Amino acid sequence: MLVAFSVAPSGTGRSDGSVHDAVGAAVRVVRSSGLPHRTTSMFTEVEGEWDEVMDVVRRATEAVLPFGSRVSLVLKADIRPGRTGEIDAKIERLERAIGDESRPDVEA
């Protein structure tokens, strides 16, 4: 499964509203998991089996708890049994589709 998630505290008491320290704690959990992952400015993607991915999401969420009075978690999952390597393969397929100007459904 491939999961994209975002986790952040609220009620931090910080005047600037920054959550980078809390997000950093969550990303450290993801990076130490050993699972394929990618972090962007808005989400972190993790790929693996259901139990291992959900465990990483749980631990990342728990890592954010000390930074505020509550935590918000947004999660989107792509569940395709028997598929692996989709964290990169989906992007590769997209890039091929964009580069294929001969396709009638793609404007140049």
Walk me through this protein's architecture.
The chain is α+β, with helices and mostly antiparallel strands and about 110 residues long. The chain has helices spanning about 20-30, 50-65, 85-100, and strands at about 1-10, 35-40, 45, 70-80. It has a single domain, classed as Alpha-Beta Plaits (2-Layer Sandwich), CATH 3.30.70. Strand 2 (about 35-40) and strand 3 form a beta hairpin. The relative contact order is 0.24.
Main pleated-sheet profile: 4 strands, antiparallel
Structural class: alpha+beta
How many β-strand stretches?
A: 4
| C-alpha Rg (nearest Å) | 17 Å
Please mark out the parts with pLDDT under 50 across 5 or more consecutive residues, or reply none: none
What is the CATH topology assignment? Alpha-Beta Plaits
The CATH architecture term is 2-Layer Sandwich
Shape, per Cα inertia axes: globular
Strand order of the largest sheet: 2-3-1-4
Tag the structure with descriptive keywords.
globular; 4-stranded antiparallel beta sheet; 4 strands; 23% strand; alpha+beta; 3 helices; 108 residues; single chain; Alpha-Beta Plaits
